[in-house]
Amino acid sequence: MVAIFVLALFLFILLVDLIVLRIQGKSHPAFEPALSQYDYPVYDGNVIPIPSNLFFSKGHTWLKKNKDGLIEIGIDPFGTTALGTLLIQKCVKSGKELKRGEVILEGSYGNKTVKFLSPINGSVKSINADVIGKKISNPYKAWGVRLISKDSLENGNLYFGGTEALNWMKKEFIKLKGFIDDHSLKVELVGETMYDGGLLSNNTSVLLVDQSVNDFEKEFLSL
Amino acid sequence: MLNETGILFDITLCEGCGACYDMCKEVNNLPETNDDYLKDHLSDNTFTVVEEYGEIYTRKLCMHCNEPACVSVCLVGAIKKSSTGAVVYDADKCIGCRYCMQACPHSIPRYEWGLTKPRIRKCNLCDDRVKAGKLPGCVEACPTEATIFGKMDELIEIAKKRLKSDPDKYYQHIYGLEEAGGGHVLIISPVPFEQLGYVSKLTNEPMPEFTMRAMEKIPSVAIGGGLFLSAMFWLTKRKNELAKEKKSTNGKESI
Amino acid sequence: MKINDILKPTFWKVVSVIIVTMGLFSTYYRFSRGLGLTTNLHDSVPWGLWIGFDFIGVGLAAAGFTIAATVHIFHIHKYEPLVRPAILTAFLGYLVVVCLLVVDLGRPENFWHPLVMWNIHSVMFEITWCLICYTTVLILEFAPVVLEKFKIKAPIKYLKIISIPVVIAGVIFSTLHQSSFGSLYLIVPGKLHPLWYSSLLPVHFYISCIAAGLSMIIFESFLIARAFTKEDGFHHTELKMDILSGASFAVLIALIAGFLLKIYDFIGNGKLPLLTVPSTETYFFYLEILIGTLVPIFLLSYKKLIEDKKWIYLTSICVISGLILNRLNVSITGLASSSGVNYFPSFDEINITMMLVVLAIFAFRLIAKNFDVFVSNESEHSVNENGTAKSKQIILSERYE
Ligand code: SF4
Ligand code: SF4
Question: Cβ contact (<8 Å) for C183 and B230?
Fold first, then answer.
């Protein structure tokens, strides 16, 4: 009897914990969708390269500290392909004192504009005019802004790198799939998307509505 | 063993008068626990009981084993064998783990559950009285000489003689002579012992033997395990180093 | 963490506070009124829930020595990230066990007696000493983490020198006392139900503790990933699947070994007919074997499942449940019919046990917050990892152009 009682208590507590998590809207690590269930080529580390000298912010920008102390900032592969091909439209002005959380770059998927936020405080030294309005083939080459900052990139709460970044990126793609399903955005996305596993679908029309762009910024581009 | 003393209890002579029960309480300063001594059971305030099985009366008490389980398991040595052969308890040492209660094959030791400084309680064969040259309380009180006291070898002789001289009256077995390695309380009876509530089916091996067989292996496990682990440590380390060396030379070649 | 955050009530915080408060009351009653009034123990059932729970606690804390041996003696560095959590778990597990033992002792004020009064024939004596020595070993193994934090460098050097002998000693002490918990019952062949009584009891205990200890650390990895999130400021707490799969494979091997030993024991001692006797014991035995051995063996032998975190999690729960059933079957169910009483723990017994478990979890969280309990394997072998990462990057950027 005692054995059954202790066992039942143990299992009961586990069950209650699952229910508590469900109410909080979180999922238990054992039961959140396994990565292998979404076996798209994009999740392969070979397709989303995560260079080891780069840091990533939650707003889908990457940061790189150059030897001269300047920090380069660009849009990561998720940002450049999430809802179609991203074209960068605007950069902040050179010389501006930028605060973390202010808009640093504006881009568009088709005719819908999205804003990327600055992951860091600093003063803008130069911007890369070459990237504006062009299709980005290598996100890590296409830096948008160079700035000088006193903040440290080693802050693990704000910036991540290595495997941690890769895992986070994979999760973002899984989240994106859910997002696209929820907003019933069909495959007629703009241009080249990662969602299809990097398949090219040219000249498709834009089905994004304003609401979904707002949600997208809230879900994926906020810091 | 030769000078050790014990008691022999002859069930055929017991009339169930309860004199031993009363005397035991008196000698050990135990409070009364039941109006009817025949309905009482062993407890922290009752070290021996008289039980009624139809016409037959029996006694239950600690068997004062030759190699007692309770002595062998007590981690602080609070239960010891006295020079008289009695198994005695020292409350000052006891930490109250109750392993002795768990281990005793006859389930004899009782505990003072109600107290905040509890002791193990059981018959101690009136060790102090015996050492002072007196008889154990129950033996002194018994009017029919059902319980007698003496040297162990003499008691065994008497018991064997009685079984032989009257094979119809006695069930041919001396309980307590070999059970669990034997002890200092011998019992002879007219009927098989399991009918009288005695624990039958006990091995003749002393209980501590069962543990000893496992405990014996400890030194070899400790030493063997130590050697094995050290060897493994060295071997796997060497293996890793070799692997590393190989890698680094390979690396050079490819560059 | 700010005071407000600490005070913010969450479901589990409220539950824990309730359990601990009730537990404190029960502890007070137990010490002021004695065992008889507060527990359901009595002369026929001298050992109850507390002792049974000690067996469970010690069995589940076994990962402390298996993981330490894997990494430091067998040099399988993949499991490095598990070492610190495992040692901490073992240490806290033993602390719970020792506290429960003290609560259970009739004369807790005499708890130090085994240090000076020796009876080397007693299994209990051996266990006590192994517990003391092994707890010391665990402290030595965990000390560097604490010293690092306070930047006391000098002793770390000496600890490094003695670290290997310490690990070896830890493995031996663990082996001895884990199996000795089984030896405790060797002296009651007449009392313990033959389904569980066996001269191989110590070996059974040892093998099952290896499987369950590893399962516990797997289970705990999930708990850690669930409770110590990034938002709370923890790092390296995410699940590392290759490690978990590897550990699950070790669990599988230990389970199979344990099962074969059981079969050998049953056939060798002619106990097979017992399996067909309809009785409570038989049903409990079947339940134990089914949940704790057969189901996990079945699940883990599928390659697909052993790589799926959901199934790894579920099997670890199965193995832990099996250990709970087994230890309580040996210590309570198996002795019930010979004692002739049906024991069920009292309210106070349950309270105190739950309180100690909650306190241990709380202590784990506190320590994990303040010391580097979770480390990634990269940080320890950084040279290697960076090298490969870089070369990969070159190939990839080519693809992008
Ligand atoms: S009968 Fe029990 S209490 Fe008495 S000596 Fe033997 S083992 Fe000890
Ligand atoms: S309860 Fe006391 S006498 Fe009995 S084994 Fe424990 S310490 Fe020894």
Answer: no
* Interface residue C340 vs chain B (CB under 8 A): no
3-state secondary structure of B57: strand
**Which ligand places an atom closest to the C-alpha of B67?**
1
* Span B100-148, pLDDT tens digits: 999 999 999 999 998 888 999 999 999 999 999 899 999 999 999 999 9
Query: In this complex, does chain A touch chain B, defined as having at least 3 beta-carbon pairs under 8 Å apart?
Result: no
Between CA B135 and CA A162 the distance in angstroms is 86
Q: CA B161 to CA B166: how far, in whole Å?
A: 9
The type of residue at B4 is E
Structural domain boundaries of chain B?
Answer: 5-205, 208-255
**Exposed / middle / buried, residue B215 (Cβ in 10 Å: 0-12, 13-18, 19+):** buried
Please tell me what DSSP assigns to residue C69. I
Burial of B187 (0-12, 13-18, 19+ CB in 10 A): buried
Q: Identify the chains in contact with C, defined as 3+ C-beta pairs within 8 A.
A: A, B
Contact B235/C at CB under 8 A: no
Angle between helix C80-104 and C123-149 (nearest 10): 130
Answer whether A135 touches C (CB < 8 Å).
Answer: no
Give the closest ligand to the alpha carbon of residue B120: 2
Neighbouring C-beta atoms of residue C148, cutoff 10 Å: 13
What is the set of domains in chain C, with CATH numbers?
48-386 (1.20.1630.10)
> Fold for domain A32-223?
OB fold (Dihydrolipoamide Acetyltransferase, E2P) (2.40.50)
**Which atom of ligand 1 lies closest to the CA of B64?**
5
Alpha carbon distance A21, A18 (integer Å): 5
The tens digit of pLDDT for each residue in C315-352 reads 999 999 999 999 999 999 999 888 888 899 999 999 99
Nearest CA in chain A to C310: A30
Q: Give domain B5-205's CATH architecture.
A: 2-Layer Sandwich (3.30)
Round to whole Å and give the CA distance between B71 and B79: 5
Integer Cα distance of A178 and B206 in angstroms: 71
To probe the interface with A, which of C10, C18, C310, C358 has the most A CB atoms within 10 Å? C310
Query: Could you tell me the residue ranges of all domains in chain A?
Result: 2-31, 32-223
Residue B2: the pLDDT is 57
Tell me which amino acid residue A145 is: V
Is the beta carbon of B60 within 6 A of some atom in ligand 1?
Answer: no
Q: What is the pTM of this model?
A: 0.77
| Contact between A48 and A197 (Cβ < 8 Å) | no
Q: Report the nearest-CA residue for atom 7 of ligand 2.
A: B94
SS3 breakdown of chain B: % helix, strand, coil, rounded to 5? Answer: 40, 15, 45
pLDDT above 90 covers what percent of chain C? 51
* B122 within ligand 1 shell (Cβ under 6 A): yes
